[in-house]
Amino acid sequence: IAPRGGRIGLVSKSGTLTYQKMFELADIGFSTAVGIGGDPIIGTTHIDALAAFEADPETDCIVMIGEIGGDAEERAADYIKANVSKPVVGYVAGFTAPEGKTMGHAGAIVSGSSGTAAAKKEALEAAGVKVGKTPSATAALAREILTSL
What we know:
Elements: E1 5-12, H1 15-24, E2 30-35, H2 46-55, E3 61-67, H3 72-83, E4 88-93, H4 117-126, E5 130-131, H5 135-148
Parallel strand pairs: 1-2, 1-3, 3-4, 4-5
């Protein structure tokens, strides 16, 4: 996929879902796409990308893809609520993941209620993020928002 420039800032833990969003929204295009990975130790965080997108005049809408494990999405939700004025659309992968099982890489593991997809979705929605029920629904939400701007 060779994305063209556009109005969406994309930050994602999932490489596969990054490709899917870039394909689904290729006609709109991306100001920047950042793949942060889902391992426990990363260089760039959701918050780093959100701050950059908020400051970028070329970004009109932010798409954030998260997944089970850790608390990065919950921390990002707090940041969004306090610091982001642009519309944010989200998706959290892993609603059907069994507790205690690693899914794909070391960071995607749920223990107890910490790091669950449901907890992340709830935190994001409380911050005003429109959270899609499926990856494709997330793309549709971003498209709707950009059409209304």
